[in-house]
Amino acid sequence: MVTTQDYFTLNERAQLIQLVRGLNERLGDQLTRQDINTVHRLIHDGITQGGVFKRDQYGLNPVIRHLHTALTLCDSIAPDRSMVIATMIYNLCRGDYLDVARVKGIFGEDIARVVHGLLHVAPLYKKHAAVENENFHKLLLSFAEDIRVILIMTVDRLALMRAINHHPNEQFVREIASESRYLYAPLAHKLGLYAIKNELEDTSLKYLNRKVFTQIATRLQETKEERDRYVEDFIKPIDERLRAEGLKYELKGRTKSINSIWQKMQKQGVDLNGIYDLFAIRIILDTTPRDEKRACWLAYSIVTDIYKSNTSRFKDWITIPKSNGYESLHITVYGPGGKWVEVQIRSTRMDQTAERGVAAHWRYKGIKSDGEVDKWLNEVREMLEASGQEGQMNLMRNMDTNLYNNEVFVFTPKGDLIRLPQGATLLDFAYHIHTRVGSTCMGGKVDGKNQKINYRLRNGDTVEIITSSTQTPRLDWLNIAVTSRARNKIKNAINERQARQASLARETLERRFKNRKIEADDAILARVTKKMGYKTLTEFYAAIQEGIVNPTDVVEQYEALIAKQNEGTSRGTAEEFVLQQPAPDNRRQPDDILTIGDDVKGVNYKLSRCCNPIFGDRIEGFIASDGAIKIHRTDCKNLRHLKQHYPYRIIRTRWTGKAGNQFVATLKVLGRDDIGIVSSITSLINKTDNCMLRSISVQAEGGLFEGLLSVNISDIGLLDDLIKKIQGVKGVKQVDRI
Question: Which of 142, 198, 610, 613 has CB 3.0 to 4.6 Å from 617, enough for a Cys bridge?
């Protein structure tokens, strides 16, 4: 059995006495005698029963460390009873000695909740690579469950940073310093814990670059008395003039933190003497809101009367406040001895807004955040900065830290932190990593356990994807994936595969037709596929490729349909009509029938297929990227778009010469479903001079048919006559050119 005498070294026993005395002085009546005795008994029993390690993962005595944290907590934020007790006993709950249920039975639900939050967050810090990821703040807030947990963790990190100053493991110290710099210092800044933030940053700089830290600290120490005298001399004439004007005010002088000075030296590329605002003066005027602007400008006038100002560094955020509400006058003046001094002038109201309101320092310094978190952290900061602690921690107990209930945060095996929407699956994670990883995903390991691709991710999961070169996306994956990225990638992969299969199946079918010496007609083939129950050719070809449809059966059904057509039945559905192609007209037509621009002929041009202009249409040309000129009808939708975006590429065009060429025109015909009507229309077209039917496709439904006719015709006048003739056919309801 370990005794408390053996557990603590002589030096640690001395620290223990000082820490207990310090806690008694600061907590006063906040902890009862029973609370103190209970905590003492738990720690004593934990030590004697082996429930507390003598050294934690940092090589530090955990009891001493957490008492240090509790004392620092009291000095920093005036914690409540639950925070102090949870901090002192949290380490006892990391083994088998004390669990959360027992804590609840001893101290009540509130302390158990804080302890549970601390235990819940602890595993995150094994993922060292993730702490620089800004998503880590969001995961931390989601895991903590109680804002007091975040406050304890932040203060605990400060206590740890103080304790490892002479730690023998330099690599470990650098890792802790890096975490403190990238995670805890920004979090402390957002919470308004500025002293903690500054100390974390300064200490991090000391551990990461001790040489630079020592140089700046030594220089500041050497010049401290000189700076203090300088500030006193600088303020003296301002103080006299402000009092003479009857203004009520407060003057503050400050020196920037070592880290802040180093950052400015790096950014501006100067040494310590080149920093403008190494120290700054703030004039805070006690005045009514009605008179505050006048008072600020009066103070500005006094300062600039006494000292010459640098106009290039003047900032007026009183006339036009910053977007976040910040109001102040910033001037940099040339003080005694040729030194630049920054002076900030604001009213008491403006100062309170800047320090505690929505325009707090961490906002206007540009630290990244988002709206909901800004609002939430602002509420926390206002509670921390409120005068008096009574009730402020009670309010915090009920604050919801789950600000990201629509998101889930998971780790890669390397520690990178990935943000996905709530409900995302292992398959979504795989596609987020890379399309190839997602497309070949077979499953994965989550915290070391095998999981299927439909596993729903949870906050803090560490996910490793298992792939196979034989795996390909399947249609049912669309029921698993929830992110648009994953779903789009799955759809694209399936469509590409179907397109490849359709191409192979089409080649197979064409070979079967060729073997029977049949030249297949697409319109007839489309009717065959419809009769076989397939709505689209893509589905039809996919069925051939998968062996569901035999190509030989398709050819036989095609031949049967042709044979039925040739029987000469006079009645039937319009869809049964088969166009008998006339012999091609091989007569050569004159080509140069257009004049483009300023009477230029012989220019390379093409008739646009989107609107199929014919001789006599009102037309315009568009100069394409390949230099050719594309001819559009003036009522073409595409031409309107081109004229809007590329007006400089439109060229005037007109017909010249005589009609005679054959142009393509497409007509849409609606009418009663009767094969006789279609036959009458085609016969009418074939009897029309300078007109030839190229193709026809017909769809029939509900006693009506819709046909698309493609004709070769010489000019617009003949086309108008043809439309009138077709409209005169019995059963035809409407004819339109498209």
Answer: 613
pLDDT at 216 over 90: no
- Residue type at 631 in one-letter notation: I
DSSP 3-state of 568: coil
Return the pLDDT at 258. Answer: 85
Place of tokens 């709505």: 535
The residue with tokens 């290039």 is: 312
Q: Alpha helices of 634-713 — where are they, by DSSP H?
A: 637-645, 675-687
Question: Is the distance from CB of 43 to CB of 88 less than 8 angstroms?
Answer: yes
Give the whole-angstrom CA distance, residue 392 versus residue 383.
6
State the Cα–Cα distance between residues 100 and 396, nearest whole angstrom: 21
Interatomic CA distance for residues 441 and 466, integer angstroms:
6
With 0-12 / 13-18 / 19 or more C-beta atoms within 10 angstroms meaning exposed / middle / buried, residue 598 is: exposed
> Model confidence over 160-212: pLDDT tens digits?
999 998 888 888 899 889 888 888 888 787 776 777 888 999 999 999 999 98
Q: CA–CA separation, 21 vs 19, rounded Å?
A: 5
Nearest to 66 by CA among 96, 94, 34: 94
Predicted model pTM = 0.51
Q: How far apart are CA 645 and CA 625, in angstroms?
A: 14
What are the tens digits of pLDDT across the range 314-340?
A: 999 999 887 656 789 999 998 888 888
621, β-bridge pairs: 631, 651
Pairing relation of β-strands 340-347 and 407-411?
unpaired
350 closest CA partner among 269, 277, 296: 296
CA dist 20 → 71, 103, 479, 647 (Å) = 9, 21, 60, 83
- The total of other beta-carbon atoms located within 10 Å of residue 313's CB is 14
Nearest to 280 by CA among 305, 262, 295, 260: 260
